[in-house]
């Protein structure tokens, strides 16, 4: 990549040296060129050239989400299958060796009785007699005298438990979360059956968790808004190719790798399709077999533009990514592109204003495109926010998980993988957090992700993945919902509405449970963004036009304390001194309402810097006023 004051002069420089131009990138006064070592030396000496970058690779491939981020090559399926009197759970061997099953630990509802039959494949397992744990559950723990071989490399084996014949309604009366299974293979593989959701076929659940499902039922589905997804391409499944009325909605396709527009952009990776599914899956959610008015994606009627800049292994380079962003900016008016989703992150290599991708994104933001990027999956250490999420102007999203309990927010938490701020230039990132744990979305059955993670495929045909990539895609969908209601919103307004309405994690002592470097402004809420979000607060104190011109660049408020750790002025009084962890906590509540209405809250200290009760009262008054307006009453 060559940068200078004039793209034409750079082109002439490359051609005089005998090289060839591969990428025209006027969005950042740059071009890409293929040259020999000798030609490069000739080019370096020219005063036309202000900057040269020769290492342009980027890896956005997803690390394995828990629990597979271990040395264990075995993986239990996310979903168990309950029949009339049998539960079956697939165990996949993703490695190159075979481990033997050494121990089994089971727990199940007392109503099913103490007797069961367990098998691994065709092998019957001799289990210890079950005992009652209180009055609610039977349990048994068995160290196998004769260890049974697990699945061969590249295969799977069913672990099953079968109850007596009189148990004939297992599927109708019980759920996966009612059973606990722990299998110990070899010395390093401990597999546990996750609680799972009640019905994978009918619901993805994150629209409900984020508040989007409530908006769907009021006709707020992202209609009329275009979201561009710069990723690995798109598998044009019917739920992505068409909206909720069956109308085509993929209105743009661009292969940034080969510089070809209006051609299919097949997704060999699966990542781009998964992100697009989170944003816009138009399949209906079913409750007890009937449509409930919501959809599996956040903005199921949004139009989609697919830009392919990454290959099947999640590899890309800066030239193609910048070219993809440039294409989005050039076609923003023609295609009404209002949101650009960037579900990738790489370790920053330059200050934000020198990063070529960030330079292009500043142009996109200034052109009226809301850019939403993943924080990265490199936590829990501080200063692990990836690029382009380190760009102060855009909306950077970390992840939280609902712990498989959709209607209970009290066990939601930010997992350790979600990247932390500050950025190298001292800015607070992420801006907010969103659901990013076990997110179900479409991916082609023969894509890299589905082949690498067969244990994350579920009966709906969807792939379940975890990461800030999924969280950022979810927020892109919410941005589309906001823009459907208020098309005049600027990117700064979108950022303000999302951040001002986010719900912070608060400790029962009244202080923040998580640092702003971990949770930003808090957990995103689609309904609160519409009802309580404000405008005018996005990127205050920053002047993007001056930044683009190189007249000034901005440092964030982060400082370094006496131990060398990043912190914020005054944060010691705002942040709880109590130890916290990347796990559910009884001390944690999300949002001012949850904090004020908890039963075990501590009396606020005299030095508490935030009056949560005052905020609670103001929010309640605002909601009541909106409710009166909805009922046709005049505002007070």
List the helices and strands and how they pair.
Elements: E1 2-4, H1 7-17, E2 20-25, E3 30-34, H2 37-44, E4 49-52, E5 57-59, E6 74-76, E7 81-82, E8 86-93, E9 100-109, E10 117-120, E11 123-125, E12 131-133, E13 137-149, E14 156-162, H3 170-173, E15 180-185, E16 189-192, H4 206-210, H5 212-216, E17 226-231, H6 238-241, E18 250-255, E19 260-261, H7 271-280, E20 284-287, E21 290-295, E22 303-308, E23 315-317, H8 318-330, H9 332-335, E24 337-342, H10 356-366, E25 370-374, E26 395-400, E27 432-435, E28 439-441, H11 448-452, E29 463-465, H12 468-485, H13 491-501, E30 505-507, H14 516-519, H15 526-531, H16 544-549, E31 559-560, E32 566-567, H17 571-574, E33 588-590, H18 591-596, H19 612-630
Quick summary:
With 636 residues, this protein is of the alpha+beta class.
């Amino acid at each position: 990549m060559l940068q200078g004051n004039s793209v034409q002069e750079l082109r002439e420089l490359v051609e005089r040296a005998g090289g060839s131009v591969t990428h025209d990138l006027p969005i950042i006064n740059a071009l890409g060129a293929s040259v020999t070592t000798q030609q490069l030396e000739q080019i370096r000496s020219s005063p036309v050239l202000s900057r040269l970058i020769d290492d342009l690779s980027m890896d956005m491939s997803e690390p394995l989400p828990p629990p597979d981020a271990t040395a264990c090559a075995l993986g239990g399926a996310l979903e168990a299958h309950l029949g009339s009197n049998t539960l079956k759970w697939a165990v996949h061997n993703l490695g190159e060796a075979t481990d033997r099953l050494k121990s089994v630990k089971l727990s199940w509802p007392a109503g099913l009785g103490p007797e069961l039959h367990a098998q691994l494949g065709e092998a019957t397992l001799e289990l210890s007699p079950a005992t009652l744990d209180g009055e609610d559950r039977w349990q048994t723990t068995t160290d196998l005298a004769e260890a049974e071989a697990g699945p061969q490399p590249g295969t799977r084996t069913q672990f099953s438990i079968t109850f007596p014949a009189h148990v004939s309604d297992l599927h109708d009366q019980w759920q996966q979360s009612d059973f606990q299974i722990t299998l110990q293979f070899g010395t390093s593989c401990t597999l546990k059956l996750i609680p799972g959701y009640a019905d994978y076929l009918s619901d993805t659940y994150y629209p409900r968790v984020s508040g989007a499902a409530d908006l769907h039922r009021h006709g707020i589905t992202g209609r009329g808004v275009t979201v561009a997804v710069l990723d690995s391409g798109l598998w044009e499944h019917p739920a992505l190719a068409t909206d909720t009325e069956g109308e085509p909605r993929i209105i743009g396709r661009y292969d940034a790798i080969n510089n070809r527009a209006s051609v299919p952009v097949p997704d060999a990776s699966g990542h781009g399709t998964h992100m697009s599914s989170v944003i816009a899956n138009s399949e209906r959610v079913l409750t007890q077999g009937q449509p409930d008015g919501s959809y599996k994606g956040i903005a199921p009627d949004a139009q989609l533009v697919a830009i392919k800049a990454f290959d099947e292994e999640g590899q890309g380079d800066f030239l193609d990514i910048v070219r993809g962003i440039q294409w989005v900016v050039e076609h923003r008016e023609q295609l009404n592109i209002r949101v650009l989703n960037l579900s990738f992150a790489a370790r920053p290599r330059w200050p934000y204003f020198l990063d070529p991708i960030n330079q292009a994104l500043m142009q996109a933001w200034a052109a009226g495109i809301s850019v939403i990027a993943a924080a990265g999956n490199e936590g829990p250490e501080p200063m692990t926010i990836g690029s382009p999420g380190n760009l102060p102007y855009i909306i950077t999203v970390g992840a939280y998980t609902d712990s498989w309990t959709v209607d209970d927010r009290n066990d939601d938490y930010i997992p350790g993988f979600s990247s932390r701020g500050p950025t190298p230039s001292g800015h607070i990132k992420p801006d907010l957090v969103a659901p990013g744990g076990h997110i179900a979305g479409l991916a082609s059955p023969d894509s890299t992700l589905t082949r690498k993670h067969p244990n994350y495929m579920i009966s709906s045909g969807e792939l379940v993945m975890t990461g800030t990539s999924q969280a950022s895609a979810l927020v892109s969908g919410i941005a589309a919902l906001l823009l459907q209601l208020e098309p005049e919103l600027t990117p700064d307004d979108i950022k303000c509405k999302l951040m001002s309405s986010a719900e912070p994690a608060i400790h029962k002592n009244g202080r923040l449970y998580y640092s702003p470097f971990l949770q930003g402004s808090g957990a995103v809420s689609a309904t609160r963004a519409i009802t309580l979000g404000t405008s005018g607060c996005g990127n205050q104190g920053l002047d993007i036009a001056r930044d683009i011109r190189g007249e000034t660049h901005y440092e964030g408020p982060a400082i370094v304390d006496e131990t060398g750790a990043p912190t914020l002025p005054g944060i010691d009084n705002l942040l709880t001194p109590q130890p916290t962890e990347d796990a559910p906590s009884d001390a944690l509540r999300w949002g001012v309402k949850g904090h004020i209405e908890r039963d075990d809250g501590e009396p606020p200290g005299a030095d508490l810097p935030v009056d949560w009760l005052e905020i609670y009262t103001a929010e309640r008054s605002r909601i009541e006023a909106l409710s009166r307006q909805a009922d046709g009453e005049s505002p007070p």
